[in-house]
Design brief:
There is one protein chain. The chain has a four-stranded mixed β-sheet with strand order 3-6-4-5. A two-stranded antiparallel ribbon has the order 1-2. Helices cover 35% and strands 16% of the residues. It is of the alpha+beta class. The chain has five helices and six strands; from the N terminus they run ααβββαβαβαβ. It has two domains: 58 residues, no CATH class; 107 residues, 60s Ribosomal Protein L30, Chain: A.
Length: 175
């Protein structure tokens, strides 16, 4: 019987230890429980409460949203954005314009063909082409950083057209 009482006491202690302190201030909130004035809210954490009080995910993580798609592919030796990506880029541009506290890195990539210097330049031209389209949507210049990796960060390691096609890309990375 003593063992049973000890187990119950131990479980009660563990249960109480897991309860949050009602007076604790959560990260991103002031002492009164209001969101901090630093611009970070539920959106920056990826989840939050919707108007109906239900937990809702960020549109960046919703597979049905165009914002969940963040890779633009290019033709060989081209920095021309294909028409199929214009709506996706416009959606990201609108999201950034509506959320001026958000930042994005536009990363340009190339396949392995061409010199390193040429591929870095090509990756930059691709990233700048996407950046221009984002800026047309009202995105601030301080919200977007352009980076080119050239051929240095491939996603496919083959030496054939299927691999090269995957490596000719721009990736949109939210910070």
């Amino acid at each position: 019987m003593k063992t049973y009482g000890l187990v119950v006491l131990l479980l009660a202690t563990l249960l109480l230890a897991g309860c949050p302190n009602p007076n604790a201030v959560r990260e991103g909130e002031g002492a009164d429980g209001a969101a901090a004035a630093d611009g970070r809210g539920a959106e920056s954490e990826g989840m939050g409460l919707g108007d109906d009080g239900m937990l809702s995910a960020s549109p960046l993580d919703d597979p049905a949203s165009p914002l969940s798609k963040r890779t633009i592919y290019f033709e060989f030796d081209s920095s021309q954005v294909a028409e199929e990506y214009l709506d996706m880029i416009a959606a990201h541009g609108k999201y950034l314009a509506d959320n001026p506290q958000r930042r994005m890195r536009v990363e340009g990539h190339a396949d392995e063909r061409g010199s390193r210097e040429y591929n870095v330049g090509l990756g930059e031209r691709r990233a700048k082409a996407v950046e221009r389209l984002l800026r047309f949507q009202g995105v601030g210049s301080d919200q977007v950083e352009v980076v080119s990796f050239g051929e240095e960060l491939p996603v496919a390691f083959g030496h054939d057209e299927a691999s090269w096609r995957l490596n000719r890309r721009v990736e949109l990375v939210y910070e």
